[in-house]
Design a protein that fits this description.
mainly alpha; TPR_rpt; TPR repeat; globular; 72% helix; 0% strand; 10 helices; signal
Length: 186
């Protein structure tokens, strides 16, 4: 029988702590709270729409110039130019360091560019600013899986399900990880 790791990597522990703790005042508006309440009660058919409404709220920085930098970063990603995306998103973060979505988007660009360390750092910041950011949590779970940290990935996926019980693909990912872990325990 293979012994499972009993000590959690301190870096992963910091992510889990960020998820468990409150904070992120910008992410705590009454409108977002209402959307999250709806998301917790939504069925599978309603979940994507509500998640989209939440993501739209998160994409609003309060500044047209910052929103433009976010859009330019997203456009560069769509065009496959991760370097340009990272430049736009870094400029956004320089000018709006409290805007969680800038970090989340740049984490995606870093990850796509093969830069896992910077991606993890940006996910950590995004989650410290917005502990309910299920997109950042999903990215973290994927990276944890790739780093062969299935227990921690399962924990993050479980947190996503507490927020969005019908989040697409999460139960399937958890099932695959559970099979892997059960196989390791044989």
């Amino acid at each position: 029988m293979t012994k499972r790791r009993s000590v959690i990597n301190p870096f992963v522990a910091a992510f889990v702590l960020a998820l468990a703790c409150g904070g992120g005042a910008r992410a705590q508006t009454a409108e977002l709270d209402a959307l999250f309440d709806r998301l917790a009660e939504a069925g599978p058919e309603e979940t994507p729409q509500i998640q989209g409404q939440i993501a739209a709220q998160w994409s609003r920085s309060g500044s047209a110039a910052m929103d433009l930098l976010l859009r330019r970063g997203a456009d560069a990603m769509e065009a496959g130019d991760t370097g340009l995306a990272i430049q736009h998103l870094s400029a956004l973060i320089d000018h709006a360091p409290e805007f969680a979505e800038g970090y989340n988007e740049r984490a995606t660009a870093f990850y796509t560019d093969g830069q896992v360390g910077p991606a993890l750092a940006d996910i950590r910041t995004a989650l410290s600013l917005n502990p309910r950011h299920f997109g950042a949590m999903s990215g973290l779970a994927v990276i944890l899986q790739e780093l062969d940290r299935p227990e921690e990935a399962l924990e993050v996926y479980g947190r996503i399900l507490k927020i969005a019980p019908h989040a697409e693909g999460v139960v399937d990912a958890m099932d695959r990880l559970s099979v892997k872990l059960d196989g390791l325990a044989l």
